[in-house]
Amino acid sequence: MNLTAPLAGHTAFVTGSGRYLGRGVALALAQAGAHVTVNARSNRAEAEGAVAEIEALGSKGCAVIGDVGSAEEVGRMVQEARAALGPIDILVHCAALRYNVPFQQLTKADLDQVMSVVLGGAFHLTKAIIDDMLSRGFGRIISIANTAAVAPRPQRAHVAAAKAALVGFTRAVAIEFAGSGITANNVIPTHFGFPKRSENSQRISRIPMGRAVRPEDVAGMCVYLASPVAEFVTGQTMYVNGGELLAL
């Protein structure tokens, strides 16, 4: 394995990667040598900005715009990605919706919307790309979940349901393809200290390491799981949380 570029020769598709965590993951994979497709739902400028950063790192990039909750749009985006970069053998599910709604105000439409992006997106992309992985005898599927999947908070019933389903889906894929050179793992980060979040100080006070998670913390775990050295790691849930769950 090339230790300076462990993902050289591989091609990744990262959903929800125009900004924030997804962008950080996409850039880390590119820095490790992978060519990367950046996906955004609607903001082409952000996606193309991420591609410019990927190319500045010496990798190839491609921007695709569309809703991962739509099987038709996923099919189109995967075709565009393959045409630009070739077969895809690393898939990272970052796309998500995480807004708060008190349970008594929560609607079935809210639940359906979040499930469509989180679980539906993972299903559609995995279905669309799994044959590329099988044909290469190598595949890495990484699902970015949320602490809501294992330690729910108020006003997040829809998010907790979707992320718990994503964890279960990823584990099921892991066991089904374990003999095919394909691994599937979950990564659960703790709280991101985005600006204007009123709960920042309270939430950070519960993290033993004393700070919010950073995109590079999660991106480093994704690079490891995507690399050849992680070939015997599958069906796992990796926590990147500064010890937060130890304090629960």
Helices and strands in order, then pairings?
Elements: E1 11-14, H1 20-31, E2 35-40, H2 44-56, E3 61-65, H3 71-85, E4 90-93, H4 108-136, E5 139-144, H5 157-176, E6 182-189, H6 200-204, H7 215-226, E7 237-240
Helix pairs in contact: 1-2, 1-7, 3-4, 4-5
Structural notes for this entry:
The chain is globular. A seven-stranded parallel sheet has the order 3-2-1-4-5-6-7, with helices on both faces. The chain has helices at 20-31, 44-56, 71-85, 108-136, 157-176, 200-204, 215-226, and strands at 11-14, 35-40, 61-65, 90-93, 139-144, 182-189, 237-240. The longest helix is centred in the middle third of the chain and has 29 residues, at 108-136. The chain is of the alpha/beta class and 248 residues long. The protein has one domain (11-247): NAD(P)-binding Rossmann-like Domain (Rossmann fold), CATH 3.40.50. Helix 1 packs across helix 7 and helix 4 (108-136) runs parallel beside helix 5.
Kindly summarize this structure in a few lines.
With 248 residues, this protein is of the alpha/beta class. The protein has helices at 20-31, 44-56, 71-85, 108-136, 157-176, 200-204, 215-226; strands at 11-14, 35-40, 61-65, 90-93, 139-144, 182-189, 237-240.
